[in-house]
Amino acid sequence: MNGAESLVKTLSGAGVEVCFANPGTSEMHFVAALDRVGGVRCVLGLFEGVATGAADGYGRMADRPASTLLHLGPGLANGLANVHNARRANTPMVNIVGDHATYHKQHDAPLTSDIEGVARPFSDWVRTSVDSRSVARDGAAAVAAAMTPPGRVATLILPADASWNEAEGPAPLPPVEGRAPVAPEAISQAARVLRSGEPALLFMGDHALREPSLTLAGRIAAKTGARLLAQTLNARVERGAGRVAVDFLPYPVDAALATIADVRHLVLVGSKVPVAFFAYPDKPSALSPPQCETHTLATSGEDIVGALEALAEELGAPQNAPVQELEKHSSPSGEAITLDAAAAAVATLLPEGAVVVDEALTAAAAFMSWTRGAASHDYLQVTGGAIGIGLPLATGAAVACPDRRVICLQADGSAMYTVQALWTQAREGLDVTTLLLNNRSYAILKQELANVGPGDAGRRALDMMELDRPALDWVGLARGMGVEAERAKTMEEFDRQFAAGLRSEGPYLIDLVL
Ligand SMILES: Cc1ncc(C[n+]2csc(CCOP(=O)(O)OP(=O)(O)O)c2C)c(N)n1
To answer: Under a CB-based contact definition with an 8 Å cutoff, are residues 357 and 61 in contact?
Structure first.
């Protein structure tokens, strides 16, 4: 057995079932090992940002890591924006990055770079295997690091000779620490402020937005009158009919400030203190109001459910919390396409258990609002603000959840970053319905131009935000990659196409011209 084979066996033994890959020469032994050893499904992405974004989608839905396979420093660099999003999502993820053979490095061949230096700012754990006999142990350590709560990015660099030289065999997964219980004082402090009668907010992130936590939070809110609010961008929110509803902190600074202006006690549950996405002249960076005290009930890596259970008990919260009712809207007839009409149609047709990926940007608010009362679903957002993740994220989520329908709410500009993910969806026959929100512009940047306020923008500045010269042919792009696609010109057409997309086997794209 060579080093690469020992690594694949180790990954598979540790529960890593999928590798999202874009390999090169230095990874040929790993690719051969995937074939020879078995146990790890290999999914090809035609750009590294597809592989890393898909690994993020997979990890968010499976709650265990996928691996990626990337080609030296440049391959890793191509994938880093979505590694960044994964890290901000606390997604468990193992990146395997091939490198030159150890003895070849001194020659400074063209693909040589400081891979550890490239990996480190975007990884929680980085290691280079020194030889073939350490590869299995390093691989097991990488998986353990990735699975350490709340979920981490581990990057293992694999020199080619560590892959092809003789190894001893696979290594077992070392013990992985569980979520640490929160200190009893954190619970009693939260109970004290929630009993005080002063305006309190449970600010929720990470696993606090999964159903068990939301139910507990809903019970606590029913007892104390505390409000529930989710962070602006979250890895995965379990929402819709039958679940405790939670609003999101708005993205625009003024709206965010207004949302929490009255809060006296901010109780963090798997979240961080809210801050503005960017600095703007004359606006604050920190969003908590001046009179507000912050209390940490549980950090993202701690036992959030356990903390909420203890808090609910201490407060004597009722056994049931009010949940969201199912809302249906009448089918559109004859109207022109509007965002609200499209979002209402999506909400009405959304199948139970759908996974909704939201890279809708300026269209997101409408979809979030209309899908609040849709059938229960999971909602995945762009956690790190690096666009170009929607199509890959949907791809990885569909690989993780073959029995669930994935709906990708995809803004056009962001879609172009990693459009190749459509090809992977077609190749793997993934049930992803993409709603391509075609406004032919970087619309949010026009808003930001006004917000940041450099004065009146001229034609050349605005031209940096227009995507209509030439217009992108989305139906052509999708079909060219093997994905069935239609353009919706009326709401009736859209309704029919979306229903067809949900029924189709394999991916389907609707070009929704806004
Ligand atoms: C990796 C990365 N590059 C650039 C940006 C800056 N950026 C933010 S939004 C945006 C344009 C988004 O346009 P589109 O996806 O069409 O959505 P719309 O604003 O039109 O709704 C850009 C370029 C970013 N957030 N991330």
So the answer is: no
pLDDT tens-digit profile of 230-252? Answer: 999 999 999 999 999 999 999 99
Single out the residue of 375, 330, 328 nearest to residue 356, CA to CA: 375
Torsion of CA 381, 275, 49, 105, to 10 degrees: -150
How far, in Å, are 76, 384, 479 from residue 71 at the CA level? 6, 23, 29
Confidence of residue 454 (pLDDT cuts 50, 70, 90): low
Q: For position 455, what pLDDT does the model report?
A: 67
Ligand 1 center–CA 511 separation, angstroms: 18
Give residue 198's Cα distance to chain centre.
35
**Top mutation candidate among 278, 393, 419, 445 for ligand 1, by most atoms within 8 Å of CB:** 445
Distance between CA atoms of 272 and 160, rounded to whole angstroms? 41
CA of 277 to the centre of ligand 1 (A): 14
Contact status, residue 375 vs residue 326, Cβ threshold 8 Å? yes
168 three-class SS: coil
Ligand 1 geometric centre to CA of 249 (Å): 20
In ligand 1, the atom with minimum distance to the C-alpha of 417 is: 1
Q: What is the Rg, in whole angstroms, of the alpha carbon atoms belonging to the chain?
A: 24
pLDDT band at 336 (very low <50, low <70, confident <90, very high): confident
Residue 457 predicted with pLDDT over 80: no
Residues touching ligand 1 (Cβ under 6 Å) are 81, 361-363, 385-388, 411-414, 439, 441-445
| CA 100 to centroid of ligand 1, rounded, Å | 35
- 143-188 pLDDT per residue, tens: 999 999 999 999 999 999 999 999 999 999 999 999 999 999 999 9
Question: What's the pLDDT tens digit per position in 462-506?
Answer: 899 999 999 999 999 999 999 999 999 999 999 999 999 999 999
User: From ligand 1's centre to the CA of 448, what distance in Å?
Assistant: 11
Average predicted confidence (pLDDT) for the chain: 96
Strand arrangement of the beta sheet that strand 237-239 belongs to? 237-239, 377-381, 354-359, 406-411, 432-438, 508-513, 484-488
What is the Cα–Cα distance from 507 to 221, expressed in whole angstroms? Answer: 40
pLDDT > 70: percent of the chain: 99
Task: Give the largest CA-CA distance in the chain.
Answer: 69
Count CB atoms within 10 A of the CB of residue 471: 11
